[in-house]
């Protein structure tokens, strides 16, 4: 049975691959920025409608699109729902690739490979819709806008994207892995990402008369340095945490001490409990230094994307599928999580799931660079892992009905 399913899936992948490759080129050529993915959204909905799914929902949480496919195998009506997610937005970068399907929009390109993620998910939808009689449950295909600005997932979930979903998976193209490899990790895979704003209110004066000023530049500099001691002196050194002051604005002239300075930055953690303590820690340092140096302050801390916490059972399933499909040597266990963030984390607060990395080749330049290209070669591997994973999850009734 499993062998014949395997063959059926692989046969369908071969059949759909030329068209899916064209789709990726179309998407790559027509990138749209976060919250502006209107044409992409319409095009995905049209493409999904051609696949005779049971439902295609547009306008989910903005420009999101959701396709739903109900299997017809015995017991499918009572079976679980497995979701697969792709992100849709591009980045404000001028493409430098010399390729026939180069971006036709100046200053906008798919430098994070979301064209490849969308094409992979459409390919999986095409393959699985042809294998409906084998599916013992429902598969939901989630196309999400605005990942790069970490707002899309929240809106999608608020608009019901995860209602009735038992588990979810997603992939990200990864230049650190060869084509035909995947990278997996149980537990925290990406960090939480929060932001903070500090306004230091001092007193402006002539730059030659510092004694009559309360200099917010000096106060801000002390705060910037002191915040580094949270990671280096206050929090256990084996606990990963990043505090970065990324913006420091003050002043307008060579000879004027300004009255105000603003600091803005980001905090990254892998432990949700530690994360909760960070606003107090930051504000204590800000308040102490401002008090010592006679300045006033305003402090705001915004909790953003949570930790991307991969569920061990779903990771295990991805590993199993990967070993069978790609060979054990091509399933790479990631040694360390990344302190980058991914808004897929939001879905994981609604159901267990996991994100894995899909190799696009080590010769490919890093994500978010003007020469990044997801490429065509990873497509069949991404589609293969998605399809086998979805099939196996629906098939494995004890897993879906029990522990998760
Ligand atoms: Zn990105
Ligand atoms: Zn991305």
TrEMBL record:
Residues passing through the membrane, by range: none
Keywords from the UniProt entry: Hydrolase, Manganese, Metal-binding
Free-text remark on how the cofactor is bound: The Mn(2+) ion enhances activity.
Domain of life from the UniProt record: Bacteria
Gene Ontology biological process terms, A to Z: diaminopimelate biosynthetic process
Top class in the EC scheme: hydrolase
Gene3D superfamilies, sorted: 3.30.70.360, Zn peptidases (3.40.630.10)
GO molecular function: metal ion binding; N-acetyldiaminopimelate deacetylase activity
Domain Peptidase M20 dimerisation: 195-285
InterPro entries per record: Amidohydrolase (IPR017439), Bact_exopeptidase_dim_dom (IPR036264), Peptidase_M20 (IPR002933), Peptidase_M20_dimer (IPR011650)
Requisite cofactors: Mn(2+)
Positions that bind Mn(2+): 112, 114, 148, 172, 368
UniProt-listed Enzyme Commission number(s): 3.5.1.-
Protein name as annotated: Amidohydrolase
UniProt organism field: Chthonomonas calidirosea (strain DSM 23976 / ICMP 18418 / T49)
